[in-house]
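Form P-L/3: holo structure prediction, ligand adenosine-5'-diphosphate.
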Amino acid sequence: MIQELRIHVLTDQVINKIAAGEVVERPASVVKELVENSLDADASSVQIILQAGGRDLIEVIDDGSGMSPEEARLAIQRHATSKIESEEDLADLVTYGFRGEALPSIASVSRLTLETSEGEAEGIRIRVEGGRKSSEEPAARTRGTTVRVEHLFANVPARRKFLRTVQTEYRHALAAVNEAALARLDVAFRLIHEEREVYRVPAGEGLRERARTLFSGRSVEGSMTLASEAAGMRLRGLLGHPDAARRSSSGVHLFVNGRPVGHRGLAYALYTGYGELLGDGSYPFACLFLEVPAEAVDVNVHPAKREVRFRDEQAVKDFVITSVREVLSRELGARPLHLGAGGRSSGRTAGGTAPAGRTAERSEWHRDDLFKGLTEAAMRSAEGLFAVTAPESPLPGEAAEQAEGLPGSREGPTEEPSIWQVHDRYLLAPIKGGLLIVDQHAAHERVLYEEALAQLTGEAAVRQQLLFPRVLDLSAEQFALVEEIGPLLERVGFDVRAFGGHTVALEAVPPSLERAGREEEVFVTLLDDLEERGARGSGVQEKIAASLACHGAIRFGDRLRPEERRALVDKLFACERPQVCPHGRPTHMVLSLEELDRRFER
Ligand code: ADP
Ligand code: MG
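OUTPUT (holo model):
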């Protein structure tokens, strides 16, 4: 009996669908592939039209070389590429594409229409549905190509289900267009979403000019220009001012030989270059273009082509660190970091800039500050007791209050004991049976967190109208995020009005933020946090509440008026979980009378 043949060659249709899994993750991947094809075809202008964040429609129109009807038919077949002929060509690629799998992969999971013409002869329009050519007809059009991709993943329900909201997909697609627009200043780009022009940039702009249209003014304005060369490598770009650092790394744009890449090593070298100028968990705005000899880098690592591998990664990293340091020290007077002999020492140890190092330094400083103003002897005895000591001399205008606030100094049914503020950090209050010590920041964090959460989950929002609305110049990405989470922002007390372009006016804020006087900062940081941690799913309310609490809370060093101290303590103990801040650190402690008695050996 003949054995059934178990191994068989997969049909092209199946292969394409499998490849689509690698190449086409979401609408943004389609945008990236199509735009790269246009750039490879030497287009001088590329227009991208999206509907529903690319879920319903992605159309890319270019004025590039176009294809002949035969080429067009070939282009939708697997591994048909005009870009390389042999393995050797892979070594020095000058094009974005080379695998010849994007068009067939996309066509296998959507309805794709390819319309193209070389200009002279008649053009052609080919329709492909679910990977099968469904029609072909002549098309009259000028030189160039239009690729229309409709209903992505309509025939792959499992994939379609995993697409995120329109606004989330849009933000990813926007990021893909931004990358191409940054990489090719010589090309004009126009992006349209839901019939609205997001931006239009002319060919031949400078990097700074273009970045200004693509990103928020805040990031680009204070940025510094970088241009350096060493050992066959070149680096140029923009480095954002440390003051404009953000909580998410979405402002970091890296390119290697003109290709947008995600490369941890490179990103890390960039951060190392900034060193202590960046706070913990903050990231600069940066556009970095690295040019290295083609043979020094491998781009064929993954089908999405975002990964690269350097032959000598350490040399590349050292070059980036040194270049970034140079610019920052020149422009900001930061201390330049000298790499070890030969520039080969690792960035990690060279600057002591690892996040852990920074934290250690900071807490050291807190400690010193805490004991500032105490005599040697007082300090010695204060050590090991607890971190709060009575101030040597009362703060101006507080003398009376402090006397009044001394435990047991006054006892009247109407008179509430005052609350001390010590070193603008801790609140001290006599309570029944002892002394209450409150960490003002942690306590306020807990209060804000629960307030925000209550509003997000249904309580009527309270808001504080701002006398002078704050006008904010957002990036297109941030603007998209504001649109995405608009209803939640409103619930929590922000009134945001769009102003045209990506400018918004902050007209009202949650009332507890007004005390902080940092409304804009808190708002923008909230957007950064959500960009970093995702703005969707069941946890998003907690994320919003945590971000507001963390950045809106009064800080160590903020002086509180007596009525503010009282309000804070009252609100803290009205919380559901007054014991800990949202990060789980204690908000307060109680020093019992017994403990005091024991210490005084009574
Ligand atoms: P790759 O870009 O890796 O070669 P693709 O599947 O993306 O593979 O494209 C296949 C081929 O179709 C390309 O090699 C190119 O010859 C042609 N092509 C695709 N898009 C365009 C375009 N916009 N203009 C001209 N030719 C194109
Ligand atoms: Mg391609």
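COMMENT: Residues 33, 37-38, 40-41, 62, 64-67, 75, 80-83, 97-103, 145 surround adenosine-5'-diphosphate (ligand 1) (CB under 6 Å).
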